[in-house]
Description:
Elements: H1 11-14, E1 21-25, E2 28-32, E3 43-54, E4 65-71, E5 79-88, E6 94-104, E7 107-114, E8 125-136, E9 139-149, E10 153-166, H2 177-183, E11 185-188, E12 193-205, E13 210-218
Antiparallel strand pairs: 1-2, 1-13, 3-8, 3-12, 4-5, 4-11, 5-6, 6-7, 8-9, 9-10, 12-13
Amino acid sequence: MKRIAMNNTHLMASLVGLLTVALYHHDTLNEYETIQELPASNVIAIEEDWELVVSEASVALSAPQIVTQMDSQSTDDPVTFYFLINHGTLPEESLGGMQVQAWRDEIPQKDKMAFAEKVFSHGNETVTWTQRIATVEGQMYYSIRNFSSLSFGNFVTNSDLQIKIATTASNLNKYSHLNSVQRSQISFASNRVNSMKLRKVRIHHQDGTVQELVVNLAVELD
Length: 222
C-alpha cells in the first residue's frame, strides 16, 4: 500500500486559531482559545473518533471498502498504521472483514485480520469507531476501539485489531490530524458512501492532560 503524498503539516501549526480546545486534568475543565495556550508536555497517545455513513452496500462486491491512515510522524522512527474495513491487502487481497497494518519505510511490518466472514450488508448504515496510537517503553501500539456497525457488530476492544511494534520514538509530538484526513480514503465504491469524517481527536500528554479537539473534517469522496 503506497502512502498518499502531502506536505508534512505539524499539529502545533495547523490548529492555531482554528479550534476551541478543552483541557481535562484531574477532574477540572478549563477552556483555551488556541493550542498555543496549552501547557507544553510530550504527547504519548492520540485517539481519533471516526464516522462513516454507507448509503448503499453490496454484499456481492464487498463494497464499499475503506482505508484510514494514522502516522506517528516521528523523525526518529516514522511508523504508519492502516485500518481497512470490508477488505484486506496483506498478505494478499481479500474481501470482507477488517484489518490493521503497521508499516515502516513503506515496508509492511505486522498485520491482523478480524471478522473475515462479514461484509457491509446494510444501506443507510452509520459506522463509528475510535483508533488509538500510543508510545510506551519502546513500543508503539495501535488499536481499534468502541466500534459500532449494523453489518460488523459492536465491540469495545478486540485483540485481533491491536498491534504493537518496537520503536525508538519516545513521543508523538509531530502528529497531525490533517494527515489522517487527507491520507484516508474510500478505496473502492465511493459512490456507495454518503460521508466519512474525523469527528474528534484526543491528545494525551505525559503530564496527564488530555486535549479534546472537535474537528469534523470530511474525507474527500472521489
